[in-house]
Amino acid sequence: MSEYAISFQGVSYFYGKGTPFYKKALDGVDLNIKKGMITGIVGHTGSGKSTLLQMMNGLLEPHEGQVLLFGERIGSKQMPKRKAAFTAGLVFQYPEYQLFEETVGKDIAYGPKNMGLDQGEIEVRVREAMRFVGLPESLLEVSPFDLSGGQKRRVAIAGILAMRPQILVLDEPAAGLDPKGRAEIFGNIYNYQKSTDSTVIIVSHSMDDMAKYAKELVVMHEGRPVMHDLTKKVFLQDEMLKSIGLDVPGITAVIKKLKALGVPVSEDVFTVEEARAALLPLLKGGEDHA
Amino acid sequence: MSNGAFIKIENLSFTYKDSEGEGKKALRGVDLEIEKESFVALLGHNGSGKSTLAKIISAILLPEEGRVVVDGMTVTDEDLSDEDILKLHKKVGMVFQNPDNQLVATVVEEDVAFGPENLGIEPEEIRRRVDDAMALMGISEYARHAPSKLSGGQKQRVAIAGLMAMEPQCMILDEATAMLDPRGRKEVMDTVLRLNREKGITVLHITHHMDEAALADRVVVIDDGRVLLDGTPGEVFSKVGLMQSVGLEVLPQTELLYELTQCGLPLPDHVTDAEECARVIFEYYQSQKKA
Fold first, then answer.
1. Residue B21: its pLDDT value, please?
2. Is the whole model's pTM more than 0.90, yes or no?
3. Do A258 and B184 touch (CB under 8 A)?
4. Residue B146 and residue B88 share a domain
5. Are residues B277 and A247, on separate chains, in Cβ contact within 8 Å?
6. Domains in chain A with CATH codes
7. The complex's ipTM?
8. With b meaning 16 or more CB within 10 Å and e meaning fewer, what string describes B19-43?
9. Gap from B118 CA to chain A (nearest CA, Å)
């Protein structure tokens, strides 16, 4: 079996071929996403991220090239499209708009039901998925439409987790949430990945969140992955990121300035937590000598 | 400094009733004055009462108690006539979160003209206003485009141009940047800041993005239906522990200084600028080295 969860091999995709709106969304993409970790994908709107995402479970078919899940081409005998759809679970942006059932329990059960699982197994999975996203079981019989925005979002994510996909793909899972809701959703996803050792792919605009949660980072630009490395190594190329109009984590500006002033702090610092740990010994040095 | 209050909010309370008739208090006696020509950021976690406040100011909701006066006009009277509401909407315009929900026409310039048309303004005057508003928002080149073909940031600028064509004195942005990518957010913030600085438009900006709040003259934090904090961005962000306890965050540079002071280092806590943050850490580092 392949060491990669997802492989893109020479993948191209076009929108509006033969019209004035013709656009090459993906341009000969070669990309291998590793198993058992969180990989982040960043890039501008229009960089090809969403197209890339929709190919990961066979929703879109490449016009050129092929997409492989665990070494098997989507559409082949070993990985027919139906299997691909259950292997890679896709959580769209604002997934709560797609809730439709009468109760939270029924909504989360919709996916596993479609997989043809028996009732007992479905119930186990619904409860397990609710635990992963931090929804209490008391909500099982509640209408999803009576919940807050953040809770609805959790129900929608639980609906995908209940299918136990080997690959979980999320497009801006925290968009529109307040800071606490953001941190909770990302914390849930982080812990889910740790406890299941599954492969998780997150598209986000927040470099601070990527610094905290993603082990590897893919940078998309004009239909191609222009960088793919450990998240820290990508952020060290801040000039390159800025040149394509992307941000760096907020703390990077502080660390760069400190280095320029001659403070011997490692550049390898991208979160507040890391900055505190790196600066304390330097700043407390004087006291230790006293 | 003081330009006088443009919006006066006095002892405002509001309760939502759910389907079972049970009440949820959204506002509990809020007192607040928004100065003319100021740029105020309103922060608070989801459900804290921010949007309810904005909707009462725009006379979309009526309060349970208290009153709101906008530019001398009481907008919380139950018997507000249609004429009064029209008058209010000439003073205060609102931009909402989802750009797709507030554009009505099939062509950008027609969308921008929708507001002034409803105010019964002469066609020539509408033409002038629409052209001016589109130029101001940098969307003139899309005048004949379909709004559906625009990016989120462009759509929000069309929505704001539609408000500007009504020539309001105040603009309320209710999480108007929440669904935009970083580039779209910057487009909207740049244009709104410009309207505030150059045209003296009073801005009330509701947001979850602390970098946007840092651009305001003043930051007001609402929690559990009450005003919890009110001050300059530096003053409000220095209350890191309190902000975190109500589900908010501060800028990473401010949080870093807070973390360091928690470890016993005597550093200032009012800093919101990254360069300034580096400078105060550097100065302390220098003084320690000498000691």
1. 73
2. no
3. no
4. yes
5. no
6. 1-87+167-182+195-246 (3.40.50.300), 92-164 (no CATH), 249-290 (no CATH)
7. 0.82
8. eeeeeeebbbebebebbebbbbbbb
9. 31
